């Protein structure tokens, strides 16, 4: 309700101009036609701009959605890079530990080597012969020989086991070191891939953000043009309403002038007829008077011999006086107010069918619509009182052009049953 749809106002203005003004001055009609053409052109531009606004809003929404997706991807990549960095740091710590283990193994090898040298040195220093062989051959009995042989075997096995253990440890440490280094290299490669992907997404984000800014700028320009066109269309609608009201006033003035001219002509014709009748009546009276005078003279001549005195008979002529009535001027204003003309009447209510997005709200003037009081019509100020079919209404809403009154009803069914009517409309002071 606050405002009826702009297209409805334009259409109502055009239809009203075509239906409620059967006759008016050619210049006013031409002005209305020109104003309607300009308004229709502005409306066409507005429709085009509104379509462009809808398109830009759609593209802007898609860009915003795309940017949101890119933001999410960047967040995921950032999290992934952080995870890879954590994994790399863990592998680095593991590699440090492996290198420490390798150093421990080397230190242990040195210890074993030093212990082996001490044993060999001891055997050489305490043996009179050639090492193990001398130790064996210096045995005093078979049992001592076997014991020494077993001892030598145990020492050899012990040294061999230590050496094997060292070699195994070194192999394991080196294998683990190689594995960790390979895993680190894989992590670095993943980090590079993620960084490259992040850079690519950032480029896409920059392009999408620039596109969004372009759409926003175009949308601002389109909305500015839309606002200017809406103001222009509203201005044209007001101008058309003024012209329609002027044309209606010219029509009423023409009708009044025609009635006055017809009354004056009838009065003149009646006066002429009364004058002619008076002239004929006067001529007849004169003729009768002359005849009576002649008869009186003839009678006087025949009666002179016997008359001792003359007797005359007076004849009086009666004349009929006729007066012509004066016509009184008729006024175009009645006791009901100033006559505006015969207007088209329709009904509406506050439902979405009648008022669209303004359903259930207040009127364009800010009042609460009330059946029996509220009407909508352009071309007159809010608060104007109009008398229609003996009922006084107040103009509180817009949506129809001058000459078309939309009467508020309490329900949609009442508005439908009201239909289309025509009635004389008076503006109260």
Structure report:
There is one protein chain. The protein is of the alpha/beta class. The chain contains six helices and six strands, in the order H-H-H-H-E-H-E-E-E-E-H-E. A hairpin with a 2-residue loop joins strand 3 and strand 4. Mean pLDDT is 79; it is low at 1-7, 14-24 and 305-333.
Entry summary:
With 429 residues, the protein is α/β, with parallel strands linked by helices. A 6-stranded mixed barrel has the order 1-5-2-4-3-6.
Q: Based on CA inertia axes, which overall geometry fits?
A: rod-shaped
Roughly what percent helix?
A: 55-70%
Please state the average pLDDT score.
Answer: 79
Report, as a whole number of angstroms, the end-to-end distance.
Answer: 27 Å
Strand proportion, as a percent range, falls in: 5-15%
What low-confidence regions span 5 or more consecutive residues with pLDDT below 50? 1-7, 14-24, 305-333
Q: How many DSSP E strands?
A: 6
Main sheet characteristics: 6 strands, mixed, barrel
Spatial order of the strands in the main sheet? 1-5-2-4-3-6
> How does the helix and strand content classify structurally?
alpha/beta
SSE string: HHHHEHEEEEHE
Count helical runs.
Answer: 6
In quaternary terms, these chains amount to single chain
Tell me the radius of gyration.
61 Å
